[in-house]
Amino acid sequence: MQPIAIDVMSGDHAPREYLAGALRALVDDPQLQAVLVGEPALIGAALDGLPAAVRERAAVVTATQVVGMDEKPREAIRRKKDSSMRLAIDQVHTGRASACVSAGNTGALTAMAHFVLKTLPGVERAAIISAIPAAHGHTYMLDLGANTKATPEQLRQFAAMGAIVARDIYGVSAPRIGLLNIGEEDIKGHEVVQAAHGLLGASGLNYVGFVEGDDIFSGDVDVVVTDGFTGNVALKTMEGVAGLIADRLRREFRMSALDRLAGLIARPVLRRAAAGLDPRRYNGACMVGLSGIVVKSHGRADGVAFARAIGTAALAARRGLTSHIAQALQAEGAVN
Fold first, then answer.
1. What is the pLDDT of residue 247?
2. Beta carbons within 8 Å of 326's beta carbon, 6+ residues apart
3. Which residues of the chain have pLDDT under 50?
4. Interior angle at CA 161, CA 158 and CA 165, nearest 5
5. What backbone phi and psi angles, to 5 degrees, belong to 222?
6. What domains appear along the chain, each with residue ranges and CATH number?
7. What are 286's strand-pairing partners?
8. DSSP annotation string for 69-122
9. Most distant CA pair in the chain, distance
10. What pLDDT score was predicted for residue 273?
């Protein structure tokens, strides 16, 4: 496997968090090779403390620019050709890396990835997919922010790619696909989801129909399809609720001596539950439908979460995600 190109400069945090994540990933995965893209002095200082066996698996590419989190995508493409984000994507385009990871501006990353890598034949737009914790293990949801709007045909293509990822990459047999809507009844929803509903019903996919927000977690569906605006709002809402519950439990168990004792007794169970729902464990969302692998990390990811995103990129590269999707789409006639 070629190295993973890692943009260590872009995101809401200082580069030290992304460098910490990159170094953690290198230590955790002895087979991983990385190209760290950014300020060479910062990268060099971070690498100095590592064993030689780890350092030799990390190369450095110098970037003189950084794409801001509020930067407009078109401006980023035009004016930030030497940015850490662009150079990381370029590594994939030229074949020097098998995937790239960035915690930067989602709009800019999506636009740059489309501009440099292009989509697979017949795929109109790439979509961001990620695993969401659910009653049966995970639900795979897309789009999580690459496209604020989607046509019925694009939603159908998202469903086809989501099914391929769930089935062939994660081993879900005959993935059940649901289209996110405000109700399960056939008459619910605006004209776009109604038209997509018709296309999916005739697609040959294992389409179960409209699903609501709570079905993301119920275990009754394996893939949930929506546009990027709705998907991103849903994802951020999930993260916020998880944080609220964790904070509320901490405060409740500190209310009195008896509550603290109850907390100590329940601590092993609470830790297991918290670990299973920790958003950091699910950080790293693949852009499916591109000619190369691009993984979007949460902009506020700490070192643990960023390492997880790198692990997601490595898994996708090892399992040949891009070629697998291209071959499966053609074989199943899912693209024109």
1. 82
2. 120, 121
3. none
4. 135
5. -105, -30
6. 1-123+289-336 (3.40.718.10), 130-281 (3.40.718.10)
7. 129, 295
8. TT--HHHHHHH-TTBHHHHHHHHHHTTS-SEEEE-S-HHHHHHHHHHHH-BPTT
9. 66
10. 66
